[in-house]
Amino acid sequence: MSRKQVILGAYLGGVNHHTAWWHPEAGSQIDFSSFEHTARTAERGRFDFFFLAEGLALRERDGRVFDQDIVGRPDTLPVLASLAAVTTHLGLAGTINATFNEPYELARQLASLDHLSGGRAAWNVVTSFDAFTGQNFRRGGFLDRSQRYERAAEMIDAVRTLWDSWDADDLAADAAAGRFLARPDAGAFDVKGNQFAIRGRFTVPRSPQGRPVILQAGVSPEGRDFAASRSDAIFSPYGSLPEAAEFYRDVKARAVTFGRSPDDIKILPSASFVLGDTEAEAQELYREVRNQQVTGKTALILLEQIWNRDLSGYDPEGPLPDVDPLPDAPPFIQGRALVQQDRVGTVARWREIAEAKKLNLRELVLDQFERGPFVGTPSQVAEKIDSFVQADGADGVIIGSHLVPTGLDEFVDRVVPLLQERGSLRSEYTGTTLRDNLGLPPLPANPGKAVS
Q1: In the chain, fewer beta carbons within 10 Å around the N or the C end?
Q2: Which first-to-last residue range defines the signal peptide (predicted)?
Q3: Helix axes 407-414, 32-44, angle to 10 degrees
Q4: Is 95 within any annotated ligand binding site?
Q5: Does residue 314 have a known ligand-binding role?
């Protein structure tokens, strides 16, 4: 049986508590030079794609902007379009919200990026329902939570309809005139649903990979079904076995129920790494990095989102707060996605963990707020990643570093060659599009018209 090829994505910092902005070698999170360096490094390591998260509002704590956040973030699409000019093979994946955008505009932007990059565009579909973010975009501030997946599903279907409104042969060359002529029905579309009713002609011909790649994240049954039915890849929250393998099997099985092949969707968790010349050195460096990432103040802020109340009076080196969370109070932390929806249950579980492991407040945060690090010598990290993928814990990993923008260099220089030696990572790019390099099935060049 041939070895699975490890899919690699590169993730650049952004709005999170993992980035070591205090490090003396840290660079800007918003200068183009940082994006360019990370993308060029990823391409040198034969990564599949470069990934950008998105923050649509400056996060707040008790009505005031975080003093630990990055203030500002350039819009995703211009950054990716600029990176298309300084890379040749690397996929370019951007996070764009389905709640606060319209199909026609978004379809044009992504199809244009796909053309500019030669078939390397990807869209990470996210949804939002909170009024805090929504007030930047829509009157009334939000879309009802029950409708967010409905709108996202209709958004993807509408955008794909527009992309498919051009066939590959809709542009006929007129050699005598030195131009291209579109067929009379090229670009015609008519989309009707609960969320959208649009009709017209799409202006961008079919792109090099047919459609940009669709990425999505979802843990709930509804989120897993959404990804299994429509996405080309799903971000997994699980970085270790056996939970990762169960998630892998479940999403692949759901894809089959929607008439797809298990290979039609890729499973990709995010991960960090810390390398050392010895295992002991790597573990010591990892502890140092984590202790600097999660200061006492950071620990309190992370717990405040769950408790939904001011915890600034508690000692980070003391026990967990003895007060109960306030699930029904107005959000104390605004602009950060709440992963643990059951605040009361989460607090109860964390108290049990803290008691069992003898952890203080900050130690509990260190224990619970981690994204699956690979720690060890380069050969150990290469073996861990490869074994995880070969055991169907995932199809690959999205690698980020605590140090922006140069942290990825060490992974490319020291781990990538070992993965290549194992036969689990390409030495050269073999495909011309992101879809090719991810091993996704090709799309028909003539998918059929949206309007007959």
Answers
A1: N
A2: none
A3: 10
A4: yes
A5: no
Question: pLDDT digits over 152-210, tens only?
Answer: 999 999 999 999 999 877 776 655 556 667 777 888 999 999 999 999 999 999 999 99
Residue 11, CA distances (Å) to 51, 90, 163, 271, 401 in order: 5, 13, 27, 9, 8
pLDDT tens-digit readout, 230-258: 999 999 989 888 999 999 999 999 999 99
b/e burial code for range 279-308 (CB count within 10 A of at least 16 → b) = eeebeeebeebbeebbbeebbbbbbbbbbb
* CA–centroid distance for 193 within its chain: 28
What pLDDT was estimated at residue 222? 86
Phi and psi at residue 162, to the nearest 5°: -65, -45
Token digits for 33?
């030079």
Res. 133: pLDDT tops 80: no
Alpha helices in 207-360 (DSSP H): 221-230, 243-257, 279-293, 296-307, 343-357
Known binding residue 220? Answer is: yes
Residue ranges and CATH numbers for the domains of the chain are 7-277+371-438 (3.20.20.30), 295-368 (no CATH)
Q: Is the CA virtual torsion 243, 245, 250, 252 positive or negative?
A: positive
